[in-house]
Design a protein that fits this description.
The termini are far apart. 22% of the residues lie in helices and 22% in strands. It has 372 residues and is α/β, with parallel strands linked by helices. Helix 5 packs parallel to helix 6 (217-228).
């Protein structure tokens, strides 16, 4: 049987759940959230020690929505009495919201193929066929690692496949990648008794006011602690081109000709592709691997009524790769769609989102600049 909804949201992470909550608040019930696994699946795959780098704090009464909340009136800090939640805890938060708002979520519905004809999207899933008038792609990026340019990347151990850093063999560890995941891995490996070498394309001291373009203060503080303990060192301004396994050794080749040897499997933390890559032909693509979207409502510039929500959203200097950033576009997408369809929109709900900085329509305010 083919099932039809006006809106289909693919992905039950923070974007998909946040969008579903907004639709419920607006009384719009012709939607479904399709999830390939379970709600909050990406967070359940985090290493046990990994935590949200943005801090949670309950400040709604003073106009400061918890940075990790995906709807007004909620706070992970309040729910868990913790500032930095683990992946499992944040998944629990998403499930708590899905239950509370009675969201229409279909789990274990992996989308296998998407087509569009006569203005209707058809989605073939592992459980059947769905059709919709508008499609919101909210799959996130965690399940799409970027190992482009590294021959033999299969010899590395991706951090998303590590249950716990404490369970890994101790010794001389090599971490490839100097972003948040790489630095987090280096810190936890060092605290578990390993000596860690981090290979990064830039420099540790490279800094920008926008936390989307540099490592967070939370991570920088921790990695400085590990450096002070003498357990972490860096090889800066290098590019890994190849990994080979020879006997009991792993050889990591750098573009400048250096070869770094380790007896333990290198950790891969080289970033992610956009989750929208699954729909590659439906989008124009920027040189940095992000989909080209309309500023008006994060809509594909090639296909009408196809939207992207989550960390893949980017407009010039505005990079939406944190929860507190991309949640600001949920209401923009829904308002655009319902207005186009002539649906009545509850002004009180939209005011609530605007008052909580969750209805960001003017992107000129997104330049991050600090004088000191």
């Amino acid at each position: 049987m083919v099932q039809h909804k006006r809106i289909i949201i693919v992905g039950a992470g923070p974007s998909g759940i946040g969008l579903g909550i907004l639709l419920e608040k607006l009384g719009f019930d012709s939607y479904v959230i399709l999830e390939a696994d379970v709600i909050g699946s990406s967070f359940l795959h985090w290493p046990a020690e990994m935590k949200l780098i943005t801090s949670s704090f309950t400040g709604q009464g003073f106009g400061a929505l918890d940075l990790n909340a995906i709807t007004p009136g909620t706070s992970p800090a309040y729910s868990f009495r913790k500032e930095h939640l683990t992946g499992e805890e944040y998944s629990d938060y998403l499930n708590l919201l899905a239950d509370h708002f009675h969201l229409n979520v279909e789990e274990e519905q992996a989308v296998l193929n998407v087509t569009k004809a006569n203005g209707i999207f058809t989605l073939q899933t592992s459980q059947g066929t769905w059709t919709c008038d508008a499609l919101i792609w909210a799959t996130g990026e965690f399940h799409f690692p970027n190992t482009d340019g590294i021959k033999g990347a299969e010899y590395g151990l991706r951090n998303g496949f590590i249950d716990s850093y404490k369970e890994l063999e101790r010794g001389n560890r090599v971490v490839i990648g100097g972003g948040e995941s790489g630095m987090d891995a280096a810190y936890h490996l060092s605290q578990s008794g390993s000596q860690v070498t981090v290979l990064l394309e830039g420099r540790l001291k490279d800094f920008a006011a926008d936390p989307s373009r540099t490592i967070s203060p939370y991570t920088f503080e921790r990695i400085q602690q590990a450096v002070g303990q003498g357990s972490v060192k860096f090889v800066e301004n290098v590019k890994v081109t190849k990994i080979e396994q020879q006997g009991g050794q792993y050889e990591v080749y750098l573009r400048d000709g250096q070869v770094i040897s380790t007896s333990l499997q290198p950790i891969l933390a080289t970033g992610f592709h956009s989750g929208a890559k699954q729909m590659e032909t439906f989008f124009e693509w920027k040189g940095n691997g992000k989909p080209q979207l309309s500023e008006e409502a994060d809509e594909s510039t090639l296909v009408n009524n196809l939207f992207v929500a989550g960390p893949s959203v980017e407009h010039d200097s505005a990079v939406f790769c944190f929860i507190y950033k991309f949640r600001a576009r949920f209401a923009v997408i829904i308002k655009h769609l319902l207005t186009k369809w002539g649906e009545q929109i509850d002004d009180d709900v939209m005011s609530e989102y605007r008052d909580n900085q969750m209805l960001l329509e003017d992107l000129s305010c997104c330049e991050v600049d600090c004088e000191c």
